[in-house]
Design a protein that fits this description.
Elements lengths: L11 H4 L4 H19 L8 H24 L7 H22 L4 H17 L1 H7 L3 H27 L6 H15 L4 H4 L1 H4 L4 H8 L4 H6 L4 E2 L10 E2 L1 H13 L7 H12 L4 H17 L2 H17 L7 H15 L3 H12 L3 H4 L2 H9 L6 H4 L4 H11 L3 H13 L9 H17 L5 H17 L7 H15 L4 H13 L9 H15 L4 H17 L2 H12 L2 H11 L13 H12 L12 H41 L6 H18 L1
Antiparallel strand pairs: 1-2
Helix pairs in contact: 2-3, 3-5, 4-5, 4-7, 8-11, 8-13, 13-15, 14-15, 15-17, 16-17, 22-23, 23-25, 24-26, 25-27, 26-28, 27-29, 28-30
InterPro entries: ARM-type_fold, DUF4487
């Protein structure tokens, strides 16, 4: 050590492995590792003291290695100092091996410090004890392989069918919280590698539907400094650590995360898809407007590819998430995004999702949609005259466009809207099974494209009347959509005149008489919204009309007074009822094709037999008439000279038609 250097010298007393602290620490670690076998419960009262001593020893190890690495200089007595250094490295290599299996965190920290010290001084230590470091490194490699086996066992355990889903998910949440306290570089493979803990969390949340719905399971939740600790549900307790992990991912690794989120968003599993959607929206809030807009563009392309699957869970969740991301943008960013999307190919731009987004921006009339307005009437006529699949898709596309444009000044569009609703009212009575499904899809799209504020007064009256007539035969899902449509259009109902109010009263009465509790609840909420938004005149007339129907009057009074309408019979309490709901809905997400029942076939076969019996006499009469025509034509041809040329041409024309028909 040079003169004037104030760095401490490496003394034998300081580094001597026989030093009291080192000996006590090593003995304590050895004791703590083996006490369960040797001592059992005899010294249980000393466990806390030993734990405290172990923690202090770990702190001393950290301080010692930091001092040894950054302060002590080897330049006084190199030979003796190197010998002591070798003994220190050997001693702490043993301590690292003992710490394995008892405290993983301390084991890793001591192993890292040992490896750094050994590598930095490898030339000097190799001369003093060639095999010492290699022996300890071999043991550490064996310990590390055991740790990797434990991690592998964690992921493999989750793939078993008989695993306890709840306990495994709670373990996953705990692991994610631990990972959040470690730098990204040291744990990135946990959630972006082949085995991803994020993938595990997204997958297993679906198996906890019962716990999520009932809500009895509560876990420690996040809280600000100074706030009282609070408890969170299993869903929130899963979402928060996932968002913490996601916030650490750098931009170069973000594509792998996007693919993972998209995989679970389109999985068709509700809770996995919802969790993915929430995480994606968290990213949208933290990221720049440009990244959020890029995500929307990408997801709209995905939605365009899934247009034929509009009613599936994955597409519904996709549309909802696109809308949530869209709401995070400013008004200027929304308009700019629509302009960018308008420059894409027509198949991407002409999607229901994009039309819906365009409708949310006030005063937005995308330039690519303007020319398609006048095509609606022709598309509807083509379908009526030639009901083909191509014409059906064409009409649905044009009708979807209507939700994004203002057609208040277009008389032709007003007229065709009235015609389409009149068609629905006439046709829905005769529809069943697959025909009713198709017409229901048409009604849902028609509701999206019908703007009450764009309709003329006479058209408004006609449309409301058609809706009221068709409502009786609508499936429950369409009635729910209708209730939501009424809530969305509530500000335009004040335009209703006395005849329209009477129609609205009939509409609400038919909705309130529905046996489906969901339809009933949606209808009551729609009526309540009208009471808060519309004029007193309209509300009073509607209330008076509905009050004349006793059953409806009782339901509305119970709703307004918050009186329970349904009694949980056969269930212990509300949690028990929710638990049964969760069990009933499990395993019913598979696609079900419609199957015609025996009763339908028995009903239609006699019709065909009856019709064939009616047709038989008519065919016999036609044969007799054709025979008579043949004899007369033969006579006419024999005396052709006496027949004028004009009559001959007419006969030839008729004969050609007969020949073409027979071919």
């Amino acid at each position: 050590m040079s003169d004037g250097d104030i760095s401490p010298k490496l003394s034998g007393r300081f580094l001597e492995p026989g030093n009291l602290k080192s000996r006590v620490s090593r003995l304590q670690i050895s004791f703590d590792a083996y006490r369960p076998k040797t001592y059992g419960a005899l010294l249980s009262s000393a466990m806390q003291e030993l734990k405290n001593l172990f923690s202090r020893a770990s702190a001393i190890f950290k301080l010692f290695f930091a001092t040894l690495d950054g302060v002590i200089v080897f330049d006084t007595d190199v030979e003796s100092e190197t010998e002591l250094l070798t003994k220190v490295v050997d001693a702490y290599g043993n301590i690292a091996s003992i710490a394995y299996g008892m405290d993983t965190k301390t084991h890793i920290e001591i192993s890292e410090a040992f490896a750094k010290l050994a590598v930095d001084n490898q030339n000097d230590i190799k001369c003093a004890s060639p095999s010492s470091v290699a022996t300890h490194l071999a043991q550490m490699a064996k310990d590390a392989s055991c740790l990797l086996s434990t991690i592998k066992a964690y992921f493999e355990y989750g793939r078993k069918t008989d695993v306890c889903r709840l306990n495994y998910h709670l373990l996953t949440i705990t692991v994610m919280k631990k990972l959040n306290s470690i730098p990204y570089e040291r744990h990135c493979k946990w959630y972006l590698g082949m085995n991803s803990i994020l993938d595990v969390a997204f997958t297993h949340i679906e198996h906890l539907q019962g716990e999520i719905i009932v809500g009895e399971l509560r876990l420690p939740g996040n809280h600000e400094i100074g706030e009282r600790p609070r408890l969170a549900g299993i869903y929130e307790a899963t979402l928060v650590p996932i968002c913490d992990l996601v916030s650490q991912i750098p931009s170069e690794a973000f594509h792998a995360l996007e693919l993972l989120l998209l995989k679970h968003l389109l999985s068709g599993r509700f809770w996995s898809s919802l969790l993915s959607s929430d995480v994606w929206c968290f990213i949208g809030r933290l990221s720049t407007s440009q990244l959020c807009a890029d995500h929307i563009k990408y997801l709209i392309r995905v939605a365009a590819a899934l247009t034929e699957r509009r009613n599936t869970v994955e597409v519904v969740m996709l549309d909802i998430m696109i809308g949530r991301l869209y709401e995070l943008l400013s008004e200027d960013a929304k308009s700019a995004l629509l302009d960018d999307l308008a420059d894409l190919d027509a198949s991407t731009f002409d999607t229901p999702t994009l039309h819906w987004l365009a409708a949310k921006v006030k005063g937005s009339h995308p330039k690519h949609l303007i020319y398609k307005i006048d095509d609606l009437s022709k598309a509807f006529s083509d379908l009526r005259e030639h009901p083909t699949t191509r014409n059906w898709k064409h009409l649905m596309q044009r009708l979807s466009t209507m939700q994004a444009v203002d057609y208040s000044d277009n008389r032709d569009i007003n007229d065709v809207m009235a015609k389409m609703w009149s068609f629905v009212a006439d046709a829905i009575i005769e529809c069943e099974s697959r025909q009713l499904d198709l017409l229901s899809d048409f009604v849902v799209t028609l509701l999206d494209g019908t703007h009450l504020d764009n309709l003329r007064d006479n058209v408004l009256d006609s449309v409301l009347m058609s809706i009221a007539v068709a409502c009786t035969c609508m499936p429950s899902r369409v009635k729910i959509k209708l209730c939501q449509y009424l809530r969305r259009s509530v500000e335009n109902l004040d335009r209703c005149e006395d005849s329209d109010v009477s129609t609205l009263t009939k509409l609400f009465s038919r909705l309130l008489e529905d046996e489906n509790p969901w339809v009933l609840q949606e209808t009551l909420e729609s009526f309540e919204r009208i009471g808060h938004t519309c004029s007193k005149r309209l509300v009073v007339k509607l209330a008076k009309g509905l009050a004349k129907i006793p059953t409806i009057s009782n339901i509305m009074q119970a709703y307004l007074s918050c009186t329970p309408h349904y009694v949980l019979e056969g269930f212990l309490n509300a949690c028990d009822y929710l638990g049964h709901i969760s069990e009933a809905t499990q395993g019913h997400c598979e696609h079900m094709c419609y199957e015609h029942g025996e009763s339908e076939r028995e009903e239609k076969i006699p019709r065909l037999e009856e019709n064939s019996q009616n047709i038989a006499p008519v065919l016999i009469q036609l044969d007799e008439q054709a025979e008579q025509m043949y004899k007369r034509l033969t006579e006419a041809l024999e005396g052709r000279a006496n027949v004028s040329e004009t009559v001959c041409r007419k006969l030839i024309t008729v004969l050609e038609k007969i020949l073409n028909t027979s071919n």
